C-alpha cells in the first residue's frame, strides 16, 4: 500500500467507520488520525490495518475494530493530567492512543512478548510516558496506585469489582461484560468511597480476558 492509498484508507476508516459510530470528539479523532495504526498491525495483516474487523494477534488475541477503539477513547473523557490503567496491552496501538490523550499510562498484559513489542513501538514513536507490566490482571491489579481511567481491552463474563477499587474519585472504567453473542459496553464512574455509577453504552461482542472470573456453574 503506497503512501497515498495509506492516507486514503486512514481517512475512510475515520469517516466511514468511526464517525458513524458517534465518535465526534475532535481530540479523539485527531489522535486516531495521527497514530499510525498500520505500524501496530502484524505484517501479514498489514493490508487490513484500517478494516472494520478484529485483527488477529499472537496467542489467539485480537485488536479491537477501529470504531470500538474510538468509542472507548471517547467514553473515558481523558484529560492531559489523567493517569490511565490499560488491562491488556495487545498490539500497543490503543496504549499509544491513550498515552497521547492522557498524562500517563500503565499497561499490563499476561504475555511478555506483547509488553516487549509494544514498549519498543511506543519508544519508536516518541511516546515515553507509558509503563508496562507483565502480569495476570484479569481479576484486578495488586497495587496501591489509583487511576483516573481504566480501559479493559478484553471482555469479562461477569462484572467483578477488582477494577472498581482502583479508580480515583470521579475515575472512569470502560469494560465490556457478558457472554456471546451480545455483550454490554459499560462506563463505570466512581462517585464516592464505595459508590459507583454504571452506564450502559452499547452492545458489542469481544473475546474475554484470559483467566477472567466466570459465573458459577448452575447446580441442581
Automatic annotation (TrEMBL):
The UniProt similarity line reads: Belongs to the methyltransferase superfamily. L-isoaspartyl/D-aspartyl protein methyltransferase family.
Cellular component annotations (GO), alphabetically ordered: cytoplasm
Protein name, please?
Protein-L-isoaspartate O-methyltransferase
Q: State the Gene3D superfamilies in the record.
A: Vaccinia Virus protein VP39 (3.40.50.150)
Q: Which Pfam families match?
A: PCMT (PF01135)
Q: Give the Gene Ontology MF terms in alphabetical order.
A: protein-L-isoaspartate (D-aspartate) O-methyltransferase activity
Q: Does the keyword Ribonucleoprotein apply?
A: no
Q: Which domain of life is it from?
A: Bacteria
GO terms classed as biological process: methylation
Record key words, sorted: Methyltransferase, Transferase
Instruction: Name the InterPro entries for this protein.
Output: PCMT, SAM-dependent_MTases_sf
Amino acid at each position: 500500500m503506497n503512501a497515498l492509498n495509506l492516507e486514503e484508507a486512514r481517512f475512510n476508516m475515520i469517516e466511514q467507520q468511526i464517525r458513524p459510530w458517534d465518535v465526534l470528539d475532535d481530540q479523539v479523532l485527531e489522535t486516531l488520525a495521527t497514530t499510525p495504526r498500520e505500524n501496530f498491525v502484524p505484517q501479514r495483516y498489514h493490508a487490513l490495518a484500517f478494516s472494520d474487523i478484529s485483527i488477529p494477534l499472537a496467542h489467539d488475541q485480537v485488536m479491537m475494530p477501529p470504531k470500538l477503539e474510538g468509542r472507548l477513547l471517547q467514553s473515558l473523557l481523558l484529560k492531559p493530567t489523567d493517569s490511565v490503567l490499560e488491562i491488556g496491552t495487545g498490539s500497543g496501538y490503543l496504549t499509544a492512543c491513550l498515552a497521547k490523550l492522557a498524562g500517563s499510562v500503565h499497561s499490563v498484559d499476561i504475555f511478555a512478548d506483547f509488553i516487549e513489542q509494544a514498549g519498543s513501538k511506543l519508544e519508536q514513536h516518541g511516546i515515553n510516558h507509558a509503563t508496562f507490566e507483565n502480569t495476570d490482571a484479569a481479576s484486578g491489579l495488586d497495587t496501591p496506585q489509583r487511576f483516573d481511567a481504566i480501559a479493559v481491552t478484553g471482555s469479562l463474563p461477569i462484572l467483578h469489582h477488582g477494577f472498581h477499587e482502583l479508580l480515583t474519585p470521579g475515575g472512569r472504567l470502560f469494560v465490556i461484560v457478558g457472554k456471546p453473542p451480545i455483550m454490554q459496553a459499560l462506563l463505570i464512574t466512581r462517585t464516592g468511597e464505595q459508590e459507583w455509577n454504571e452506564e450502559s453504552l452499547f452492545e458489542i461482542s469481544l473475546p474475554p480476558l484470559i483467566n477472567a472470573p466466570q459465573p458459577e456453574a448452575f447446580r441442581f
